Amino acid sequence: GLDRQVRLDADTEAQKLLVTWEDGRASTFDVEILRTELMEIVFNETVVATEDQSTGKHQWNWTSPVPLECTSLSVKVRSRDGQDVSEWSSQQILPGLDLPDNTDSQMYPEGKTVPVGSNMTFCCIVKEGQQFGSLLYKDTLVKETMLSRRTYATTMTNQGPSNPSGTNVVCSDEKKMIITGAVVFVGYPPMPSDLVCETHDLISVDCQWSKGRETYLFGMARQTYYTLNGRNCSKARDSNMRCGLEQWDGNWTLVARNLLGEFRLTDAAELGHRVRPVAPVNLTTPEVYSWNASVGWLWKYNGYERLSLICQVQRTSHSNSSTQTYTGYGLNTVVLKDLQPDEKYNVKVRCGSQKNFWKWGEWSLPLSFQTKMDRPVAPDIWLWMDSDNLGRVLWKVSTTSGYEVTLWSPEENSQQTLTLPQSMYSLPINVTDRWSKVTVTARNPAGVSLPANVVIPRHLPGKNGGKGSGFPLSWVAHANASCGYVVDWYNTSCTHDCNVEWTRVCVSINAFFSFAGNFFAGVRYTFSLYACSSESTVLLERWHGYMQELVPSRTVPRLSPNQEGSDVQLTWDQIPLEHQRGFILGYTVYLTNASHLTLLANITDPQLTNHTVKNLVLGSYKFTVKAYNAAGEDGGATVSISLDPYTYWLIMEILVALGTMTCLLIIITIACYRKRKWVKKAFYPDIPEPKLPGEWGITQGTLDVKPSPHSMVHIVEDSVWDSSKEALVTVPEEDEEGTGDEEADTDEPASLRYYNQVVEEGSSSRGRPHASDSSASSTGSMDSGHTDVTYTGIQTSPDASQCAGGGGYRPQMQSASCPEDPQTGPEEHLQPPVGSFGGYQPQCSWKQDSPEADGGGLDQACLGSPTSVTSSQFLLPYDTSEEGKEHQSSASTWFHNLLTGKP
Amino acid sequence: MAGTRTRRGAGSEQSRTARAAALAEELHHECTLLLDLYRKKETFAEELTVGGESLVTVPPLSSQLSPNDMLWRLYSALQQCRNLLERAIGREEAVGNGGDRAQYENQKKTVRDRLGHLLASTRLLLEDGAGTAAFTPEPKNSEIDYPGNGSPFALKLWIYRIFNELEHWTLTASKTLKALHPDGATPKERRTRGRARGRRTRR
């Protein structure tokens, strides 16, 4: 047996149990550990424990997987020597915190920090009298194990990193109320990297490193702390991993430490090898010009004065960005060259140590400045020929305020200057003009640029004719033709895949050469002469030529006539080059009569492609236009035109005639109005006294005359009238209602009634029935003309009242419905009004009123008039409607007023 | 006490009560959100409840109390809530387990500010009554201090309980103030506006 009892010492934080006992003889022991309350064996093994010579005791360490606070443990030990074992020692109990006198609920381990991947057992000690419910790791329910009456445990394996406030393990009762809990912080030990130390001020040291892997441990107690050469780096937090020392040591050790461990990094270097200058400050531009500027700055540290620096100056304008490098001791000013005038620049500077270059320093803050304006550079100009004679002087647009273009003629010693705006960049020229040189200058507020010149080519493409089998060419020797000349030629009208031939001519004096080749007649060739020099070949001259000219192979295209009044303008196009077969010298215009051609014009300007034939009379014409060259005329293009009458002249004439007529009518109207009395006298004389050639017979009816101011009827009573003619007898108005047989005289001037006594001379008329045919009626009318009445003015249509009031004088018109008609029998009144009476009906209304007349003639409306009437008045249709009456009345009144001069 | 109230300020008092009721309702909403954020931050299962005695200790708010007495008790409870919240915020800052919890931190500040406004509004209601002279602010309660002995979980549970108390007392305040306000319509209208405003704040 063991001499003395076993002693237990617990390290709860480390969950270690130190077992100590005394037994001087053995070195091997059996150790048994049980959970006291439930008597569950948690450890039962043979261990080796040597004797501590100083104390004479045996010690053995055991690390419990379960926190020692969770429940009480009983430990007993016996010695072993092979198969021989001693007696068990008495049980030694390590009391847990689940003893009844410790009533509170608890959980262990609490607030522990462990590495990621650790296994841990948590135990929950339920409050005395409380019922255990469940255990949750984070928010996950985990399986628990009962360790004692009040203690329940769970084991978590391979734990992952915690969130910043740790991982919670929560113990709840059966009502899901939180009893207690614990927090475990699972993370990593620090592992920084890349420690680099450098100096900015040439004295102190600034070290930086990378944080490395995330530790997942936060808070004052668990975060990572750094020391550099033993000094705390309190500012090294979060992502700002840097630490400084006041003096350059040459060797540095960084220690990173948290609850899970520490990590060391070292660095070593000479000061001169680790200089990283600070950013320049206070950038200024002491001098700014058009093409350059100086930039200066200040250094924060005086030590830079002796430091050889290399600096980069980055300048940025709107168009581009560039970086230039400068060197010097304590460099603090540089000159920027090749700047553009009137340009805004941004510059920034950074520097490094030129000797043992380490790193570029930080960029300075940018500085902006603008260069001064300068006179523009000479324009880049070119002469571009778009035809043999015409071209344009072109120049490249730049930032200027305008251009001046000067045309020179040295031969005439004259010049012409044009001022062009900024937007212009070309000027058309004609090489046939006298100008031989063009100078272009650009100007801006700072001044005028140098001139840019271009020479207008003096040599127009010449014409050349072949001789024999070749072309003779000659030119003036050119100074730059160090290696002779090159002449090339090709078919001018060729447009695709053309054959170009050339030959070299080695002469240095004025030359005349004849080039033989495979030339065809009627084909235009272009020859170009180049001066050959070591640098390049220069075009000197150019010719066009035909080996032999032929007449054009086709006529002028698109010949068309256009009539312009009595002229005809002929237009046509030029013959295509390949059909010209010679230099076109001009055109001839002919008038074609059958097969005979009459020459109208010979146009000697080949560029002119129209001709006007003037003063032609109406008719058809045929014109023929022929182009001609040295070989002759082409077949001629013919066009016909028929000259139309000049329609617009006709219209004009009609319009003039109409205008004249209108004027004439107006004049006549005015004249008539002025001379209306004369007109009246001439055309409307007073009605003469009625002439009664014969005796007036029996009065058979009344003739009512109302002498109103507008009376149209003038009864001329002549005292010398023959009594036999007194057929018109005034009848008193009052008797109107009477039978009409009674004769009564009256002084009433307003209304006169005349009884028209129709004289019937012939018995034939008497015996003739009224309802005779029209010819008989006509005869009767002629026969009965014994009364001559002249009317003036308009005869207004009588209406019913007039009829009722006596009817008035109504020649050739009698209404059968008039009740006053004394001769009308009762049976006639029964007759309905005859519609045919509603208008002027010459020889159609009169009826035999005489008692002798038989009344059956009413339906025979057309009878011969008993009265011969001479009338010049307008006889308007009789309208029964009121409107018609009013209209007639107003019209007649107006016309009457016109004639009588009344307004 | 109620009988000594002045008639003169009755109209303004009503509007103040309505305003305080709306404020309390809005604050209750913010406290609910704060509690939710904390629960998520600490991965506390939603079904778990917080046991133990209440951290805020006031006599019960029975219906037999006069309105002013009721306001007094309510005011006292809210005062204790504010003290607890301030201590909780201080504790969390001291531990410094911040990490990336910006929304939670902002919500804590929002609740703190609005709780201050509610306290001021409630105090105005009290001052209108006759109990102004007897006003004794911030009753000291030593038991509300952090009991954890450095245990991280005890601190978390304590803060969790504080947020639960806040949620409870702001709801009580909202209900009590609404009951004290004779016209129930006005707080209702305000509530609608208050919630809208609250959402904007949360964004």
TrEMBL record, chain A:
Residues 279-374, 551-650 form the Fibronectin type-III domain. Residues 772-784 have a biased composition (Low complexity). The keyword ATP-binding does not apply. It is a single-pass type I membrane protein. Residues 729-866, 879-903 are annotated as: Disordered. It is found in: Membrane. Its main location: membrane. Residues 787-800 have a biased composition (Polar residues). Coiled coil: none annotated. The chain crosses the membrane at residues 648-673. CDD domains: FN3 (cd00063). Residues 732-748 have a biased composition (Acidic residues). PROSITE patterns: FN3. Keywords: Glycoprotein, Membrane, Receptor, Repeat, Signal, Transmembrane, Transmembrane helix. GO terms for cellular component: plasma membrane. The keyword Cytoplasm does not apply. Pfam families: fn3, LIF-R_Ig-like, LIFR_D2, LIFR_D4. Belongs to the type I cytokine receptor family. Type 2 subfamily. This is LIF receptor subunit alpha a. It comes from Hucho hucho. The lineage of its organism: Eukaryota, Metazoa, Chordata, Craniata, Vertebrata.
Automatic annotation (TrEMBL), chain B:
One of its GO terms (biological process) is negative regulation of neuron apoptotic process. Residues 180-203 are annotated as: Disordered. Residues 190-203 have a biased composition (Basic residues). Coiled coil: none annotated. GO terms for molecular function: ciliary neurotrophic factor receptor binding. PANTHER family: CILIARY NEUROTROPHIC FACTOR. This is Ciliary neurotrophic factor. It comes from Hucho hucho (huchen).
